[in-house]
Write a structure and sequence with these properties.
Blueprint lengths: L15 H4 L1 E3 L4 E3 L11 E13 L2 E12 L4 E3 L1 E4 L6 H13 L1 E16 L2 E15 L9 E5 L1 H7 L3 H15 L4 E7 L20 H14 L6 E4 L3 H14 L3 E3 L5 H6 L1 H13 L2 E7 L3 H12 L15 E7 L2 E8 L7
Parallel strand pairs: 2-15, 3-8, 10-13, 11-12, 11-13
Antiparallel strand pairs: 1-7, 3-4, 3-6, 4-5, 4-9, 7-8, 10-14, 14-15
GO molecular function: hydrolase activity
Keywords: Hydrolase
Organism: Corynebacterium stercoris
């Protein structure tokens, strides 16, 4: 049957430039609460712009161009979400399976959207620094070329991938020297039904699952320090991650709601002390201080955040800093699987 308005042509992966869209604008990126329901018949995928080199000298930076024999094309590393995964977990798993590389995730670049057969394929891309591993040709990827970004853009088979690389290049021009994974504690037992000290109110069943799922979502950012506000529910939220990484949780009351209300300047100083250490750190805090702190960081930095600053239980703000100023922010509303 010939294609017609009632019987549109079937588009495939290699047709993605024909009707594709890009959502790659801005240094603030936000994953929807239910990304699997954002479009009709969504197929979710995730990947990364793999890079190596020294971001302080962009002439040394090269990115990975992936050749897929099935399509005979050059593209970026990505793959579909498996049941029980977050988008972050998908990105690192697919990259390991396709390329053999271990990566440290950085900035969320955004997403591309295009029709494939009867579904809408939505692909989220991060930057990913290669930290180890080795490529072995396989059925999915038979060749990888490491090229400067301008040359990689020329080699790419699709405009959508070229745009992703161009946005990655912009992020590389302002590299983060510190990154904070700012976590709202997981769900706890109902405050109204708890008669004891509120600091001792524990996580409920869903909260314990959220805390466990934070492990595969935050580990790929390779944090080296974990801080927590004083309440047990904050400490319990990051305990599985601390156990997985072999890091002690440093408890500091200045990261909590009460500290923000009682001595805002000291709470801000505590946060910036962590930023000043550089590298990647986790701070687990509460629902009042997180939106207020992010708003303050925005007002002090180079990244205006004009809309509502959400901080649901179990969510994470990935905050990027350069020279002590907020330069990028990614909001991941949940650690629970997206499908």
């Amino acid at each position: 049957m010939a294609p017609s308005p009632s019987n549109p042509p079937q588009l495939h992966e290699q047709d993605k430039d024909k009707s594709g869209e890009m959502f790659l604008t801005g240094r603030f990126q936000e994953v929807p609460v239910k990304p699997q329901k954002e479009f009709s018949r969504t197929t979710l995928a995730a990947g990364a712009v793999l890079w190596r080199g020294d971001l302080s000298d962009l002439d040394t930076v090269t990115v990975a161009c992936i050749h897929r024999p099935h399509y005979d094309d050059w593209s970026l590393a990505k793959g579909k979400v498996d049941p029980g995964e977050s988008l972050v977990a998908t990105a690192v798993r697919e990259i390991k399976e396709e390329t053999g590389y271990d990566i440290r995730l950085g900035k969320l670049i955004g997403k591309t959207v295009y029709p494939v057969k009867k579904t809408t394929k939505v692909v989220y891309y991060w930057t990913g620094e290669v930290t180890g591993g080795e490529f072995t040709p396989n059925d999915e990827v038979d060749e990888i070329r490491w090229l400067p970004i301008d040359e990689a853009i020329e080699l790419m088979s699709y405009d959508l991938d070229r745009e992703v690389l161009a946005k990655a290049q912009k992020r590389f021009r302002t590299p983060a020297d510190a990154r904070i994974l700012y976590v709202r504690h997981a769900r706890a037992h109902d405050r109204e039904k708890w008669s004891g000290d509120d600091n001792l109110r524990p996580l409920d069943k869903k909260g314990r699952r959220q805390s466990e799922m934070l492990v595969p979502m935050l580990s790929p950012f390779a944090p080296t320090r974990i801080y927590s506000a004083e309440p047990d529910r904050c400490q319990a939220t990051v305990a599985p991650l601390a156990d997985e990484l072999g890091i002690d949780v440093q408890v500091d009351a200045r990261f909590g709601d009460n500290a923000w209300l009682e001595n805002m300047v000291e709470a801000q100083r505590a946060f910036m002390d962590v930023v000043d250490q550089g590298g990647v750190s986790v701070i687990c805090a509460q629902g009042d201080v997180i939106p207020a702190m992010v708003a303050w960081l925005s007002s002090q930095g180079t990244l205006p955040l004009d809309g509502e600053i959400n901080a649901k239980k179990g969510s994470t703000w990935v905050l990027s800093f350069a020279d002590g100023q907020l330069t990028g922010a990614d909001h991941i509303p949940t650690a629970l699987p997206v499908q």
